[in-house]
Backbone:
């Protein structure tokens, strides 16, 4: 049986919510390509006194780019995403993000930069005391927007990911797949300049995985740079994008 949201009237002919299909290219978050997105130069990361888990990473994430991040378990994918999200600092090397040397940024400046990044965590990190709707709307609330300006967008996206009937439920009563869809909706709702997703299709069926990939692609076309960490070869084969492959702490890039 086809899930009801696959034929949702709010979806456009391209299979994505109307709000994304209407966006002109290169407008995500008011981002201008010449300022750049991310640059790593000889970056290394170790935890405590242990060995380096990431070694000599040198690469760029360009404006409007789309890349899959892959590699065996334990290769350091989640650690790299944490560096990109500015939640940890490297042990050595230079990271430049949105034109800023992150080593020079204070706590408040780092928090401000993180507002330009959407992230899907493996453990979802939904707020249990807030409804699904409130969790997804949270980026808009942080921006100080009035609910009247975003309510329809949030409802449309929740319907599109199949959570229209669960929007007033609290996270503890959601299934793993429902939590994952809510986390994805929260990450993309404000059209961030950089989207990071850690195994975003790990708890959904293949048809919904394809549907979510279309959402990421449409968001990328609107100007967002996208990094998806995944083990799913079939998912990566559906879209021609750069592949960043981590192996034993080192990064190999394939066009």
Residues:
């Amino acid at each position: 049986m086809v899930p009801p949201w696959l034929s949702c009237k709010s979806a456009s002919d391209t299979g994505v919510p109307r709000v994304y299909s209407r966006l002109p290219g290169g407008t995500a978050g008011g981002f201008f390509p010449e300022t750049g997105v991310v640059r790593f130069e000889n970056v290394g990361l170790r935890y405590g006194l242990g060995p380096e888990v990431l070694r000599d990473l040198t690469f760029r994430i360009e404006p409007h780019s789309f890349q899959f991040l892959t590699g065996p378990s334990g290769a350091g994918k989640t650690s790299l995403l944490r560096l990109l999200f500015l939640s940890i600092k490297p042990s050595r090397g230079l990271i430049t993000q949105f034109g800023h040397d992150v080593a020079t940024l204070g706590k408040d400046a780092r928090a401000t930069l993180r507002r330009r990044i959407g992230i899907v965590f493996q453990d979802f990190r939904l707020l249990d005391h807030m409804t699904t709707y409130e969790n997804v709307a949270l980026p808009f609330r942080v921006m100080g927007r009035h609910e009247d300006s975003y309510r329809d967008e949030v409802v449309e996206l929740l319907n599109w990911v199949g959570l229209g009937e669960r929007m007033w439920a609290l996270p503890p009563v959601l299934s793993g797949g429902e939590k994952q869809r809510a986390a994805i909706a929260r990450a993309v709702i404000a059209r961030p300049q950089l989207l990071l997703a850690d195994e975003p299709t790990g708890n959904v069926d293949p048809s919904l995985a394809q549907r979510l990939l279309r959402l990421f692609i449409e968001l990328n076309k609107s100007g967002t740079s996208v990094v998806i960490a995944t083990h799913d070869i079939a998912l990566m084969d559906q879209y021609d994008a750069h592949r960043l492959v981590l192996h034993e702490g080192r990064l190999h890039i394939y066009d």
Observations:
- Residues 206-221 form the longest helix (16 residues).
- Helices lie at 18-21, 77-84, 107-114, 132-143, 151-160, 176-188, 206-221, 233-236.
- The first strand starts at residue 38 and ends at 46.
- Residues 37-254 form a domain with the Rossmann fold fold (CATH 3.40.50.300).
